[in-house]
Design a protein that fits this description.
Helices cover 30% and strands 14% of the residues. It is globular. It has 203 residues and is an alpha+beta fold.
Length: 203
Amino acid sequence: ELRTRNQWHLQVLVQNKSGTVFTPEILKFSKSLAARIMAAPSYQNFCLVDTKSPGGTCASVESLLPFFFPPHVDELNPEDYESRPTGDHLTNIERAIDAVLRHGVFYYTDKNFSKEHRSSELFRMQFAFGSPLPGFESHKDRLREQEALLAEFMATSIRPILNGLETGMEGVTVLYGGDGITEREILLALTNDASLASIALLF
């Protein structure tokens, strides 16, 4: 089926160089940015399809957002909490951090985040894109053509959102990288944070 294979990814990092990302302003900004990316032109033509949802909707962004903006309790699955849809309201931040630590979800923060160090300079969001794209038989079918279509989408729909994005918050910047799109500034974070080493594979 179209776009059901988890094929490509976009990593977006919100970085607070002067403190923690676990503030109401930064968390709300991150949620708003995720929604803006998913509302980009043609996003629904490239996004990974959530096969568990009716109607073939786009898979939710993978991040800590559901911990801070929890959906209805009866919708939660403890095994994939970080890939659930988000709710509308910001919950108690300290209790949300407790839940993150309890679930052991450390992929979306910096390397120092722990029970003893309950802050993080980084807030990672991962957007998944699926294959095969419309007009192709499988993920292997004319793969370079599919990758070229993805790169064009990234250049025309995603890069304009992220390139030079002003957060309106002192010390807070947005870094990004992924298949079909790169941003050199993310390499600076790589040199200082081993937990981001996996992003190096995107370049």
